[in-house]
Write a structure and sequence with these properties.
The protein starts with 7 loop residues before the first helix and ends in a 9-residue tail after the last helix. The protein has 2 domains: 37 residues; 43 residues, no CATH class. Helix 4 crosses helix 5. The radius of gyration is 16 Å and the shape is globular. The relative contact order is 0.07. The chain is built from 6 helices and no strands. It has 91 residues and is an all-alpha fold.
Length: 91
């Protein structure tokens, strides 16, 4: 069962008027900022990454269910190898 989330930041007129790509960029900005703040607080980035992945999959399961999340996760190795998550130029 898909649940509906209500976030005051997303429900505000400024963010609510953004298109999907802008929402994704805004969401990535929030996550990037959280990582930066954790680093400033002295947390090891490996712990933050593992916690973020755990929470991301927990949220995916809550929204889409175990089977759909598992199907999504099955595509991740190919995307990683293709460089979908890489920032630096590939060699």
């Amino acid at each position: 069962m898909r649940r509906e989330l209500h976030d005051p930041m997303i429900d505000s007129p400024d963010i609510a008027s953004l298109d999907e790509a802008s929402h994704k960029r805004a969401a990535l900005g929030y996550v990037t900022q959280a990582f930066a703040e954790a680093e400033l607080d002295g947390l090891d980035s490996d712990f933050v990454v593992q916690a973020a992945l755990f929470e991301a999959f927990r949220q995916l399961v809550a929204v889409y269910g175990e089977e759909q999340t598992a199907l999504y996760a099955e595509g991740l190795p190919a995307r990683i190898r293709e460089g979908s998550f890489s920032i630096a130029p590939r060699h």
